[in-house]
Amino acid sequence: MGSFLHQSPSKRALNANLPYSGPAQTAVHADDAHKLPEFVNDPSPGPGSGMSVLEVLSHLYSSPALQAPDYDLHKGTVPLQHCALALSLNRNPAARQPTPHPTPVFLDPEGTKCFLSLSSAENQLRIQHNHPAQLIKLAYVDHELEKDHTILSQFDTTDFSSGMAHASYLISKKGSLNLPGITTLSKQTAEELLLKDAEEHHCFINTKAFHNHLSHHVLAAYDLGAPAAVLERIYEKEKKLQRPFYLEENHRTDFVVTKDNWTEHLGNRNAYGAYVKFFEEEIKVLGAKNLLETYMLSEDANKDGRRMFVRLASGVSGLHPLIAVGYGLEFGNDELVATGLAQAAVHKDDGHEMLECVNDGPAPGQGISLLEVLSQVYESKALEPLPYDPDKSTFRLQRDALAKSAAACPIVSQFRIPNSPTPTEVSNAIEEIIWVSNLLPFASGKRGRKTRLDFLLMHVLTCSIFLQPLCDALEKPEYQAKFLRAYVAGIIFVMMWRGVPRIDPELAMSPTATPRSPVVNDRGPTAALGDPNDDAAYNPWPAIIEDAQYHADVHLVKAIRGVLYASRRYGHTKAGDIPGAYRDDEKTKEVFRGIGKVDGTLFVRSAGVLMDQLGWMTYGQTKGDWNYVALGWDEAWDALED
């Protein structure tokens, strides 16, 4: 803190807790942060000294200098909207346990309680990162910045600097759905569970490199409004599958990743813990956006066989590293971004041949729709699957697809997103991808056959919810275009992996648009304005959402979130208005037969199929399962029916 002798009279009065009757004060907006005086660079108090955030605000609140006539303190209208308060920050890094999220209570000089509503989690993270210039957002001060910055300098930031081992584990953004039911307790519980998972568990649950889905399940259920008790049950169920953070105790010391050697252990699963620690430190310095640019998209991150973009975005991994990073960006959780990038680092760079084309796209206004891309995949002789072999494992089928993957590049590069797209072009591309990602799992069955939902195609759906958060994080149009083309390549690779299953749009539209749980409302007539037993007056989503929150299958929860997200964005779409459904502007030539009949009810129809296949568990049905057999081959269907 600056010397007391160098403080102005008003500052000395505040610091000495003496009366001060200077001019009224006004709020400083975040945009005025450049006007900060040098106090923000004053050294913070040493460990064990200084004020807590609440003490700083309490001091400011009780200061006579801040009794501005245009602020109603007792109604909580003091301009504290930029207070990135650490109400949930961990002030004891050694314990590494989150503190509660209390409603902040301050006392005025007469002892009257004043409840203030404080928010702005983004700034909260900045404080954790110990950016001194953001301390202005801890309180309201006047434009002259002359009266109370001494108090601000007393804020103890030492707890949030180098001594803090992990990145921010807080949920600082609302999820894509943010459904009612989310509470302070459920948020705090989710944060605690996410941190425990990040600190205690490896990204692979077995030697076959099956992925840890614990954090996915927690956040997907949380976003649907699941109570804290359900989140805890999810954790207890999923943790039984996990392996320790360090697979062997010696990995703790054998692998140490630094800026100088971070490329040396790429592809080594035993180095996962070391990469997590490394990216935790890097994200505290760089922030999530710059971390991704530096370690995923930069030339340095991809030269000499490093291929970090491939390791993250390739469909060979089932999109899992991308999913992990996507959750982190969607919910503003830096810890998940760090662990997702660490997960990418220990994946192999398989599939790089297919991503060679993602840097170059068509000229603006040129190219073809994603549905036309699929049509070309179906027509390509080079991408025809090998003859059906019932003895081939999933991993053998993956190798077969990899051997042909380079042939997909000329098709992927035609997708109509230019190298430097406008925001509208990015939005349009995301819409096309979401439609296709929803069609593939539900339109790739066979008429007259039992409904089967492909496990890997489902990942294309669940990952599509992260397209917008990822594009928002990348910011640069050329990076957004590269990522979206890579996602298209990932879709095509998963299709090849599954034997290139063909979509039948009319099949996807055949299930009911009013799916129901096994128990219906059998109450008699009432004075209510409509009867939920009548399909015309029935909204299926509440029952679906309620059951999905409690479902034991993590992928069901994620898939329901995916179709619900798509419904919120595009559920209003009329038949014939799906982007790219027709080859001509006159809408006379469908890309696929029946695609012109698909409308926004696709998503609720698909949700009903999901619930019927995986089970309405809160109504007593047993948990169903996904299909793990590649159904692009007709022979595979025949074998399943035998």
Structural notes for this entry:
Pfam families: Questin_oxidase. It comes from Panaeolus cyanescens. This is Oxidoreductase AflY. Residues 1-10 have a biased composition (Polar residues). InterPro entries: Questin_oxidase-like. The longest helix is centred in the middle third of the chain and has 26 residues, at 272-297. The model is unreliable at 1-43 and 66-164 (pLDDT under 50). The chain is 42% helix and 1% strand. A hairpin with a 5-residue loop joins β1 and β2. By secondary structure, it is mostly helical. It has a two-stranded antiparallel sheet. It is globular and about 65 Å long. α5 (184-200) runs parallel beside α7 (228-239). The chain folds into four domains: 4-160, no CATH class; 184-350, no CATH class; 353-505, no CATH class; 512-518 and 534-629, no CATH class. The chain contains 25 helices and two strands.
